[in-house]
Amino acid sequence: MPRIKRSINAHKRRRKVLEEAKGFWGLKKSSYRRANEALLKAYTYAYRDRKARKQDFRALWIQRINAGARQNGLSYNQFIHGLKEASIDLNRKVLADLAVSEPEVFAELVAKAKEALAVAA
Question: For FRET with 73, which of 26, 55, 79, 106 sits at 20 to 30 Å CA-CA?
């Protein structure tokens, strides 16, 4: 059998790894072995944190909604329950944006939630 020479493919792979490790600190940007290790970690963190970002933003939205609702005399869970009773379907991202940028509109939503809670009780 003929001998297989792998120099072209090996150089391509190493060059690709070193290009992706550009901007890393110390030997992690110039040594193939260190760069490869650093990239494996970086890819792991990136995958994990794409999931965590969704949780972080949901928590932030809830805090903003809670702050806005409390300024208008309701707690977060009462407000969300009131919206459901009033059949107002807005997601937390939109509600948080309203609480920050349009406090008057948010106050109207809180008033409608209060009305729905009073009717349901």
Answer: 55
- Secondary structure (3-state) at 102: coil
Domain holding 68: CATH number?
Answer: 1.10.1900.20
Number of domains in the chain: 1
The 3-state DSSP class for residue 90 equals coil
Dihedral Cα 95, 79, 77, 117, nearest 10 deg = -150
Return the structure tokens found at 14.
């190493």
CA distance 48 to 118: 44
Q: What is the per-residue pLDDT across 6-42, written as a single tens digit (0 to 9) for each?
A: 889 999 999 999 999 999 999 999 999 999 999 999 9
Report yes or no on whether pTM surpasses 0.90.
Answer: no
Find tokens 């509600």 and name the residue. 95
